[in-house]
Structure formats: C-alpha cells, structure tokens
C-alpha cells in the first residue's frame, strides 16, 4: 500500500480543519442575521430599574455591544426582562431597541444592548470588559448600528 497518500492523520490535518472551521465561523458571524437590526421604531435606554423611556437621542450611526437578540414574537417584555437581569448583575447602560428601526440590523428582533459609542475600538473595549466581568456574556459582540430611518 501507499504510505504517502493524502490526507494523512496528524497535526497537519488538525491545522487544516482548524483553519477551515475558523473561516467558516467568520463567515457565519458576518452573515448571521441575529446580530443585524432594522430601522428603529421603539427604543428604550435604561440604566436603572425605572420604567423604560423612549430615547429619541440615539445617533443615526453608532457602535454598541449586543448582549441579546430576542424575537419580536416573544414580545418586548421578554427583552425588558433580560435587560433588567443584565442591569441587576451590574451591566451599565443597558437598553432595548427594535431592530426594525435600523437597516444594519436583522428585522424582527428586540435587541438588548450596552453602551453607545462613537468608535469601533470603544465598543470592542466595552465588549472585552463585559466578557471579563460577566461570564454569562461570553457571546456578546460589538456591532455598528446604522441607517436609522
């Protein structure tokens, strides 16, 4: 039999499959609609347990950290409850917005976010801080929110 047939098991194949998995993960992350939101119809930004208030002052283009995306079929109350849970665990500047208000976000989601930043780096730093201090937020991610209608 041939001993030099391909593929041979070993560290080289592990590296090849790891690279393929990494590229696949990046592509899935780039095209995942759960992190995308549409034009904002209803926005609330709460930092305390007080009832939510509509915030008209959100900029048309900003960076934030997405903590959760909850289908609109579950209702705004589910998103508000999740936001309250994050606030109670110490996360600051948590808000809820309707993804249908932003073209850069997938439609039909209530988005629980933390912070409004003017630069990508600020959002990444905030994401890293959240991941470091809140293990339950390991899947949060920075996102640019644009095209408010």
Explain what you see:
- Residues 32-56 have low confidence and may be disordered.
- The protein has one domain.
- The protein is α+β, with helices and mostly antiparallel strands.
- 32% of the residues lie in helices and 25% in strands.
- The longest helix has 21 residues, at 11-31.
- It is elongated, with a radius of gyration of 19 Å.
Short structural summary:
The protein has 149 residues and is an alpha+beta fold.
What is the percentage of strand-forming residues?
15-25%
H/E topology pattern: HEEEHEEEHE
The helix count comes to 3
- The rough form would be described as elongated
Q: Name the poorly predicted regions.
A: 32-56
Radius of gyration: 19 Å
Tally the beta strands.
7
Provide the domain count.
Answer: 1
Structural class of the secondary elements? alpha+beta
């Amino acid at each position: 039999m041939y001993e030099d047939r391909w593929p041979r098991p070993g560290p080289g194949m592990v590296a090849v499959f790891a690279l393929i998995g990494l590229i696949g993960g990046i592509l899935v992350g780039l095209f995942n609609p759960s992190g995308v939101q549409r034009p904002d119809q209803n926005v609330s930004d709460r930092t305390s347990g007080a009832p939510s208030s509509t915030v008209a002052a959100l900029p048309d283009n900003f960076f934030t950290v997405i903590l959760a995306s909850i289908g609109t079929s579950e209702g705004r109350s589910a998103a508000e409850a999740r936001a309250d849970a994050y606030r109670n665990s110490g996360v600051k500047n948590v808000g809820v917005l309707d993804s249908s208000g932003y073209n850069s976000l997938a439609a039909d989601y209530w988005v629980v976010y933390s912070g409004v930043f003017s630069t990508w780096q600020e959002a990444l730093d905030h994401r890293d801080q959240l991941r470091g201090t809140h293990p339950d937020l390991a899947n949060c991610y920075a996102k640019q929110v644009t095209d408010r209608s």
